Amino acid sequence: MTSTLLLEQIFNGLQAGITLFLIAAGLTLILGIMDFVFLAHGSQVMIGAYAAAAITIATNNFYFGILAAIPITFVCGYLLEWLIIRHLYGRDHMDQVLATFGLILFFNEAIRIGFGPAALFTNFPSSLSGFIEILPDTPYPVYRILIILVGLLCALGIHLFVSRTRVGAMVRAGASNPEMTAALGINVKILFRFIFAAGATFAGLAGMMIGPLTSVEPGMGEPLLILSLVVIIIGGIGSVRGAFIAAILIGLVDTVGRVMLPMLFKTFMSVSTADTAGPALASMSVYILMAVVLVFKPTGLFPPKGA
Known about the structure:
The chain has 307 residues and is mainly alpha-helical. Helices cover 73% and strands 3% of the residues. It has helices at residues 3-32, 41-59, 62-83, 93-115, 142-164, 166-176, 178-183, 188-210, 222-235, 240-265, 271-296; strands at 131-135, 138-141. The longest helix is centred in the first third of the chain and has 30 residues, at 3-32. The model has no long low-confidence stretch (mean pLDDT 87).
């Protein structure tokens, strides 16, 4: 493997990890702070992607599509919590699993009814279709660089919000002792609703950014949900810092492994066998990493204080 190819794969892994973090950040807050098992979080990715794609196709303006889809995704998350999720707080986790699994089926069918079963394809504007030389003779797509920068800014914003702001202190207080927090005059229900809607927005933003790279189709968020759960388990449930580090780690392991392992296997296997076994083992390596972490750190690499 040349150094140029390795560097490109590292950046691809970083971009994949940043995307996973945007999904996992909201989910780890919902699981860790609200103690709610929300399996339909991947549907928020799909909702954000469809909102951005539909508006972009209708207006022929990529930037307007993204900017308009962000508040739409927030409102969808807010209404979902108000109409359905708030009635499931305090229920058994199995009830939450069954209810939110039903939401996955509902959202997928609603998208098929509204947009049809065929995938939507959007292109980013010419201003984002070029390349930047990250090193001499090493071009890298501008759009992927943008995803990395947006993800890093979101990660910084989430960290500062949770750890440095008054509302973030309320969130932490509501998570540790909701009864006492409510007794102090803080509306814990509205606070949790805001957390839920914010988590849905970050997941939707991930869908908006990956839509032009792949395709926007029903059920597109479910594979990302599974990887996001792995991120949360490795990083520590409720830990935003853990989610960020684990997401980057998983992105690098999966992306670099898909390139390196086939090349390694070709030294003692046939080309066709190596091309099949390499990516398969790279996908497995993510779950092997999770198992190893759980053996030595059952609460994750960076569990919240008190966990």
